[in-house]
Specification:
- The chain has three helices and ten strands.
- Helix content is about 35%, strand content about 35%.
- The longest helix has 25 residues, at about 115-140.
- It folds into two domains: about 1-25 and about 115-145; about 30-110, SH3 type barrels (Roll).
- The two termini are about 25 Å apart.
């Protein structure tokens, strides 16, 4: 039975490794060299941007538009709950509105697809599954090579 517990531990380790690979795969933030107004006003406009303010604060903005000298949009959903006659009511999801002066923006980044990370992710998953299969065969006591 010790072989079986080692096999289960190996499967768990492989699953954790694959989850770690999933966390960083497929997309990345790419800094834009042009003015924020130009980037956001471009067609098609990016659905999701990340801005860094002059004081170092980072904000993620969805549905960003430029209006006058400001960047407007909504922030990520923030769960909130409220009370009705002293009893809690089911939580709702609110999207805080964001308005930032264009002059206060130090950098603007757009989330883009990363072909290299996607390739690494798929390769890592295939290698991980193959390793789990081979280790499973090697530790299986009932498997005999003819």
């Amino acid at each position: 039975m010790p072989g079986r517990s080692r096999f289960i531990a190996t499967r768990r380790l492989a699953a954790l490794a694959m989850i770690a690979l999933l966390l960083g795969g497929c997309s990345t933030w790419r800094m834009q060299g042009q003015a924020p107004a130009t980037t956001v006003s471009a067609r098609p406009s990016p659905p999701h941007v990340r801005i860094t303010l002059q004081d170092g604060t980072r904000l993620e903005v969805y549905q960003a538009v430029v209006q006058g000298d400001s960047l407007l949009g909504v922030g990520p959903a923030a769960p909130s709950s409220y009370y009705n006659y002293g009893r809690p009511v089911a939580p709702t999801v609110s999207h805080p509105r964001i308005a930032v002066a264009l002059g206060d923006i130090r950098t603007l980044e757009i989330r883009t697809h990363s072909g290299g990370r996607t390739t690494l992710l798929v390769t890592g998953i295939i290698v991980g599954l193959l390793a789990v299969f081979i280790i499973g065969l090697a530790t299986d006591e009932s498997f005999e090579v003819p």
